[in-house]
Amino acid sequence: MPRTSVATTTRGPALALPWWAHQGFEYLVALLFISQAAHADADRPTIGAFGASIALLAALTDGPLGIARWMSVSMHRAGDFAVAVLLIIAPVIAGMASVLGIAICEGAGLTLIWLTLHTAAPSRTRRRPVEPTRARRPVQSLAGGRPRPHPAYDAGRLLRKVHAQAPHQIGRLIGQYRAGRRTPGT
User: Fold this and answer.
1) Could you state, in order of their start, the residue ranges of all structural domains in the chain?
2) Cβ neighbours of residue 121 under 8 Å, at least 6 residues apart?
3) Count of CB atoms within 10 A of residue 162's CB?
4) In this structure, what are the phi and psi dihedrals at residue 139, rounded to the nearest 5 degrees?
5) Distance between CA 12 and CA 119 in Å, rounded?
6) Tens of each residue's pLDDT in the chain, 186 residues
């Protein structure tokens, strides 16, 4: 019977949450912090600042639930780790008095680290294939028979032709310039 555990692969953990779930969870944590700040007396500024920073981090990131999309996903991940570390050490630095505030900060910090490590980065959207232009569509023959295919564009053949002709054309222009038949820029 196979064990059910989180196995790590070369790309990260096998259990990967989608990016929208990551952002949605951050909004929920921010809402929890802001509501706790509304009810707490002693630690209101600290808890409220963390709620606002988590909400801004989720809102400014490029993703399905992002609002402004000013920040890349990799910057968001770095911000997640920074906020998580601040959440973990905040009770000591800010001298939090309430046990509930300390428990929320510690739990949210550890959960944010776990969430960041187990979220799959969104794949970049691929561009749709471009519709063929008129030059690429089959050309009707003048005799009215079956359409003949347009000759394929061969970049290598064009490059070889330009490479072969360029020295000759440059030499011709220099010769005309020296003979006085051509002025620079014309």
Assistant:
1) 12-117, 154-186
2) 19, 73, 74, 77
3) 10
4) -95, 135
5) 9
6) 444 444 444 455 567 888 889 999 999 999 988 888 887 777 777 888 888 989 998 899 888 888 887 888 888 899 999 999 988 988 888 777 778 778 888 898 999 999 989 988 776 655 555 555 555 555 555 555 565 555 555 666 767 777 788 787 788 878 887 887 766 665
